[in-house]
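Lab notebook page, bench 4
Experiment: in silico fold of construct C2
Operator: M.H.
Input chain length: 304 residues
Purpose: comparison with the prior construct
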Amino acid sequence: MLNTNTKTREFKFDSIHYIKALFELMKPRVMSLAIFTCVVGLLIAPYKSVDYLYAILSITAVALGSGAAGSLNCWYEADVDKVMSRTCLRPIPTGKLTKKEALIFGVISSFVSVGALYFFSNLMAASLLALTILFYVFVYTIWLKRKTPQNIVIGGAAGALPPVIGWAIATGSISIEPIILFLIIFVWTPSHFWALSLFKSEDYKKANIPMLPVTSGVETTKKNIFVYSILLFPVAIAPYFLNFLGVIYLLFSFPLSAYYIFICFRLLKTKDEKSEKSISKQIFAFSILYLFAIFISILVDKFA
């Protein structure tokens, strides 16, 4: 009797850890950003034809789709994840899951998420989710990431689609407003990831991934980060001048975007290696705060 109870406890213990490993495989941090921007797109859409239950179920489907894309990314990149300090603790390198398990989970989650979104929402939203998953896995992960330093520029389109999906959930269509939200994330992405690649350049060298600091050097990377911070400024404040958002949004987006340019300019002018890594870490951290703040300000402006 004692042995039976012990086996039961062990089974429960292993089950909990297996579920936790599957959750980690889905890249929850990336998933949280996708969910948040998708919710913003849904909430600010002009038509509220989706009831609350279907809206929640639709967002859950998007979350599962984002996790599916992350899982398939981890499956394909298991060989490089194990040699990079930033990714070596993911479920596959640590042996919590096998590549086969990750592949099966990712494929099933992809089909379930797209099917569920079609059922709870509409064809447009489901098609956009399918496009997001396919683009992230096949275009970014399999095709671009190991072949070109522009991988994150093009591949960033996948991460920029969630607010468009949110808008489509509510309206069944796409218009200029969600495209602007897409562009904000799309133009934000390169500077965000290149800042990360600056202080993790040794990781990318070991993994033989052609991120910009590895292929073109630190100075070129700093210049590109600065250029993209400048490009982001007009895109970020565009919603106000296009009469999509009001003065409250402008009061948030203008100083946030100006400060982003400032710290990227500091990085550009810095010549000390230690300072470069320190400022690049600041840019990476602030870029995350920046994007969340921009989308929060969108909500505040719409509902104030």
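Observations: The two ends are 62 Å apart (CA to CA). Residues 273-303 form the longest helix (31 residues).
Next step: discuss at group meeting.
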